[in-house]
Amino acid sequence: MEMKAGDRRTSRMASMLLAALLTACTAPSGDAKSTSGVQAAADPGAMSPLGSYLAGRHAQQQHDYAAAARFFGEALAQDPNDYELLNKTFLFDVTEGRTEEASRLAERINRIDPAAPVPNLVLSLGRIRSGDYAGADALAQKLPREGIHRFVTPLVQAWAEAGLGHPDDALKTLDRVRSVQGFAPLADFHAGLVDDMAGRSADAAVALEKVLKSNQHANWRTIEALGSLEERMEHPDQAKALYERFARENPGSDLAARALARLAGGQEPPPRITSAAQGAAEALFDLASVLNQSETADLALIYARLALYLEPDFPLAKLLVADVLESEHRAEEALAIDRSIPPQSPYAWTARLRAASNLELMGKTDEAAKELQAMAAERPNEVQPLVQLGDLWRSKNRFAEAVASYDEAVARLKQPEPRDWTIFYSRGVALERSGQWPRAEADLLHALQLQPEQPLVLNYLGYSWVDKGVKLNEALRMIERAVELRPNDGYIVDSLGWAYYRLGNYPQATQNLERAIELRPEDPTINDHLGDAYWQVGRLDEARSQWRRALQFGPEADEVRTISAKLDRGLAKPSPAGATAQGG
């Protein structure tokens, strides 16, 4: 079951989870660490292991984990008794999906420290993969039960027990997951899969229905698991209702469309889970999904790689790995994974959209645009490729082309719904940046009609009015509301400060712009605005300091000229914009 990334419980778990993983990278108490570093310092001929180690540390800091695995492995080959190198090489082999190599190192670590948790986990998964469920269960029972292992241990153990043909033991083990606040749906999801694999269809249906009832919006994996079960129980109407529900909540999704087409053709789906290895892979993917956020992305990558070790053709796990790699600026590797999703997969369309995104990140803008244009032509009613194409052109400041793409996307909308606010907002931004303010204003107002409390729209429209000196009172109210909704967004706080500036309230402007700088210290526009406010309250030296900072952070060419002129001549005290503004 996919968990929401924004769940506050996950954020509170972050440090706990990282600490649990780091225990795999420390020598066991009483173990004498190799003195290779000391030897290298004394003997110039032995510098290679130290050099490889330092290169590995640097690669680790740069999130270049492939290089880290290679350098630590080279150091380990020359100093095979160094326990720290053994652990580091093992960990980065896992991170990079080199799980066969990691398994061999895990055996070595296990002989030195049988309690090392992550090597034990990899060995247990290897046993599940080979069908040695008793061996997997024995290793899983040795895993710790704190930190992330509060979830890992019972999930892996439950699937080992299911593989042994002991579904009741598996369900009892899953109760340890259910007892953690907020994780009952995860336990119910896997209970449903365990019961389904054991042939206990009615019990499986009850468990999966509990998962559906626990969430306002159903995720596809739960719908698919329950729908497949209903079809195999010869309840086609119930399955159809589930797929249609998902289709209503996710218009244009290939997932429900393919299931409905199969159902209409009278084809029975295969069982959702046919082996304990598949079930354990699903569990590891669930953990990776929970961890896929900035604080714990490295952990997410590890558990997604382990899911693929058990189920190499698991498309969702592949896409999650690609997502983490993309966030770590490894677009070329992410692109290779996106392109590995076969065309017949229900996730192929999503993979192609993501491939276009990675092409853009690699600087292949024209290739990315060509792919999105081809996708838009393939599906004349599909909006997303055109929206993504508009976003691509907008990111390159090619606003006329962006507007054209958004125009085509809007033309495909039969009846704009609240979720479509982003299209009008994005087109409004592109129109405003290309000097077409009347159309831009209309789009931003339309976006607000669709989502009246959307802080990005409130901010952009309010800021635009402030910058044009119109409707200042209304603009101020809109930006104040945006700040209430997103108090830690530096750009929105900057807008509020600039609104006060344009109204002539320089002390209030200064206070808000100083707060914006705390939130976004390296933004040239915010630094420039604070410089203007400082000048108007008589803090001239600080004003020039802020303008110099603004120039350091790469403003656009026309802003460079304006800021440089202010450094030369300062500012005249303007009349408050509100004195001549249109009422608001």
Query: Can you identify the CATH class of the domain at 458-584?
Result: Mainly Alpha
The CATH homology group name of the domain at 458-584: Tetratricopeptide repeat domain
Derived from helix and strand composition plus strand pairing, the structural class reads: mainly alpha
| Approximate helicity band | over 70%
Task: Give structural attributes.
mainly alpha, 0% strand, disordered N terminus, Serine Threonine Protein Phosphatase 5, Tetratricopeptide repeat, 584 residues, 32 helices, disordered C terminus
Describe this structure in words.
With 584 residues, the protein is an all-alpha fold. Among the domains are: 364-452, Serine Threonine Protein Phosphatase 5, Tetratricopeptide repeat (Alpha Horseshoe), CATH 1.25.40.10; 458-584, Alpha Horseshoe (Serine Threonine Protein Phosphatase 5, Tetratricopeptide repeat). It is built from 32 helices and no strands. It has helices spanning 8-22, 36-42, 47-61, 65-78, 83-95, 99-112, 117-130, 133-140, 149-163, 167-178, 184-197, 201-213, 220-232, 236-249, 254-264, 276-291, 297-310, 315-327, 331-338, 348-361, 365-378, 384-395, 399-411, 421-433, 437-450, 455-468, 472-485, 490-502, 506-519, 524-536, 540-552, 557-569. Helix 19 (331-338) packs antiparallel against helix 20 (348-361) and helix 21 runs antiparallel to helix 22 (384-395). Mean pLDDT is 88; it is low at 1-47 and 577-584.
What topology does this entry show?
Elements: H1 8-22, H2 36-42, H3 47-61, H4 65-78, H5 83-95, H6 99-112, H7 117-130, H8 133-140, H9 149-163, H10 167-178, H11 184-197, H12 201-213, H13 220-232, H14 236-249, H15 254-264, H16 276-291, H17 297-310, H18 315-327, H19 331-338, H20 348-361, H21 365-378, H22 384-395, H23 399-411, H24 421-433, H25 437-450, H26 455-468, H27 472-485, H28 490-502, H29 506-519, H30 524-536, H31 540-552, H32 557-569
